[in-house]
Amino acid sequence: MTHSIGEKKVIKIDVSSDTVCPWCFVGKQNLQKAMDSAKDQFDFEVRWHPFFLNPNAPKEGVRKTDFYKQKFGPAQYEGIISRMTKVFQSLGFQYDTSGLTGNTMDSHRLITYASTQGYDKQNALVEELFLNYFCQGKYIGDRQVLLDAAQKVGIGGAAELLEDPTKGIEEVQEEFEKYSSGINGVPHYVINGKYKLSGGQPPEVILKAFEAAANDASF
C-alpha cells in the first residue's frame, strides 16, 4: 500500500529474483536508478523474495561456462555472453563468467533471514551477492562467500543460520509460495501489491509504475 510520511508517499516494491539471474542484477540497477530519480517524491520499501531458475542445481556447483554451454549450445552461448557483457558495461560493471554456478537455496535462506533485520540490510545483501557472483567470480553457494557478504552489510547471526541446513527453509518456501509461485520468470516486480512488471525494465518504465501507484485512489 502507499502511505504518506509528511508529504512523501511510501511505495512498497516486492521483487521476486534468483541470485544467479543476470537480468535480476540488471533489473536491480535500473530499479535503483528509478528510485534515485524519484527520491524527492517518494520513499521506498523494497522487499526481495526467492525464485529458483534451476531448483535441482547441484549444491557443490559446476563451472558457469560448462553449464551455460550445455544449456544453450556453444553458438548461442557466445551470443548470450556477448550481449550480457555489453549490458553490464552499459551499467558500469564487468560481467565475469568465471567461477561456479549451482544451487541458490542457501543464498535465499540468508536473504530471507536478512529481512528480519531490516529491508535496507536485505537490499544491501542482495546487491553484495549479485556483485560477488556476476562481477567477482565468487560462488554464492559457498558458505564463506555468504558469511563475508553478511558481515560486510552488517547482518548478525548468519553463521548460526547457515550451519543448520534446515534452518530458514520453511520461511523461504513460504515466501516463494506467497510471492513467486504464480510467475514464470524473473525479475518480477509488484508495486504496492497491484502494479506488476517483469524483466529488466528500463528506469523510465519503472518510474511510470511508481507514478501510477502513487496516483491510484485505492491506495
UniProtKB/TrEMBL annotation:
Superkingdom, taxonomy of origin: Eukaryota
Entry's Gene Ontology molecular function annotations: oxidoreductase activity
Transmembrane segments: none
CDD domains: DsbA_FrnE (cd03024)
The organism of origin for this protein: Musa acuminata subsp. malaccensis
Residue stretches making up the DSBA-like thioredoxin domain: 13-210
Protein name (database record): DSBA-like thioredoxin domain-containing protein
InterPro entries: DSBA-like_thioredoxin_dom, Thioredoxin-like_sf
Gene3D superfamilies (alphabetical): Glutaredoxin
